[in-house]
Amino acid sequence: MSETEMIFYQQRKDKIQNINSLIEEIVVKEINDLTRETTLGESSFKKTEPAFIEIISILKEFGSVSLDFSTENDLGSLLSILPQIKSRFGEVEAFTIATENPIGSRDSIHNAIVKLLGKLYEIRANILLIAAVKRGDIDEAAKKLEAVKNQFEEAIEENQRYIQTIREEINNILNEVRTAASQIGVAKHATIFNEQAKGHEAQANKWFIGTVIIGSITVLYAGFLLFASIFGWGIGDSSLMWQQIAAKFFVISVLSFVLVWAAKNYSSNMHNNIVNKHRQNALLTFETFIKGSENPETKDSVLLSATKCIFSHQYSGYSGHDAESSEQTNILGLIKSFANRTNTP
């Protein structure tokens, strides 16, 4: 045997010894010490128990057969995977719920162990097949290979089910977040309309008081002029009569103008107050009607009605232009057009 062959043989022997040593360290682990149900409770590794059992079972099989005839690739893969398994098992034993996000950390370790199990399945098929062939037991090799295939497929299905469960949980969380965000948005805009309604109501009250005061002054002044004309108060030289009449007419005109102006401001603020209250009520009841119906057409109708309430002209009884304008039709037409473009694939 040449020196190169001797070096290669010694290196291969060292690899097999390291592999057997790692296998011996791992297979002595107790399943209860790994699942840790008593110490971790709901955060335990109970769902990882099948993977623990399968990994230890496979490694025991490796320990029961000779690795002398295994390929260099398989030995190298084992030397790469076994330290990872040992490290992950150590993380399981040292795991504590006092860490930040314990559920997320536990699931991360679980996924890593399941992936390592999948890699073991790939190596197991080659190692056991070669060992069985060397022993001359072809039938046993075929059975073990079929068993490995079935176990590998089951592991893949289990992992896919777990991923699907996580995906559904994430989608549920996203839907809840979207719902909460929409409710917060509706409440926020309802608050804005409420504040505007209160502001217009306060201004309307001020203009109402001003209108009453100006109206009272106008009536009193007109009454005074009436009595003055009946009893002849303040009538002097006839040449000055027209000047007095002009002055009195000017005062009456100014008071009338101010009265009408104050009344219009009162009506305008009361109109805005009622419209904003109507918008607030529409937004506050919008979510209730949406949740109360599962019919998409009904939800679309409620959405259009709420949009109409917010953007179109509203009847209040205080505005002189309460007839619905053509802008309402234009706004709803734009909304429907945008919705159709959005739904078109």
How would you describe what is shown here?
The protein has 345 residues and is mainly alpha-helical. It has two domains: 134 residues, no CATH class; 161 residues. Helices cover 83% and strands 0% of the residues. α7 packs antiparallel against α8.
Number of β-strand runs: 0
The chain-level mean pLDDT equals 75
Strand content: under 5%
Helix-strand pattern: HHHHHHHHHH
* Class by alpha and beta content: mainly alpha
Instruction: Report the principal-axis shape.
Output: rod-shaped
Largest sheet properties: none
Question: What is the count of structural domains?
Answer: 2
Features:
345 residues, mainly alpha, 2 domains, 83% helix
Q: Topology of this structure?
A:
Elements: H1 3-27, H2 31-35, H3 37-40, H4 49-64, H5 72-94, H6 102-135, H7 138-231, H8 241-291, H9 296-311, H10 327-343
